[in-house]
Amino acid sequence: MIGSVPGLRDVGRALGVALIAAVLAVPAARAQNAGTDADAFAPVEEYARKVEEFTKNAPNLQKKIEEGTKSIDALADAAKARDELEQLRGVVADLLGRVSDNGELSKLGAKALDNARNKLKALEADTRFKPEERQLLVDQWKELIRQTARAAEDLDKARAEFAELIRTLQTREDFIDELLQIKRAAEAIKVMRQLTSDLREASEKLKTLIGGIRPPGA
Hints:
Blueprint: H1 6-75, H2 78-99, H3 104-124, H4 131-171, H5 173-210
Helix pairs in contact: 1-5, 2-4, 3-4
């Protein structure tokens, strides 16, 4: 029997220990190999993630380019520029009609003054009030007439000054048109600079994407 011989007993014990150790080592080795396999694909997975991110952001860049192109085309549209000037002409003509010497604004002061004078005249002939009451009301309306006349005079001066400026504006339409063209050209520069910034930002991301992974030894 092996158990009755001291030498063989030791050998058997050693073999048993070795077998147990081998069995226990198998799962550990498998886990280590699995971890090594996962690490081997990590760079590729990271690169694929960057590719996916760039692909998702690409439509946004395309939209910015499209909007920038449309903006510059609109700013360079001669017909649209003419429409803008025509709108200005229409506004100026309408204002001039209202503030001219025969316009509605020129009559407001006179209307208010006539109303106040008619009211005073009617009040002076009114017998419903006591003499002291009527005198108080008459004095108030006389003061109102005085202030109405001053306000009407101030309004007419402001109207005449504005009308003169509007007429001057009408004579400077060509100069105004040139200023508007300068404004549109300046806006086009802003659009181009924004597009330049967007493209450079996308270029940096693209450089990172291109240089993110290289074959062994490259």
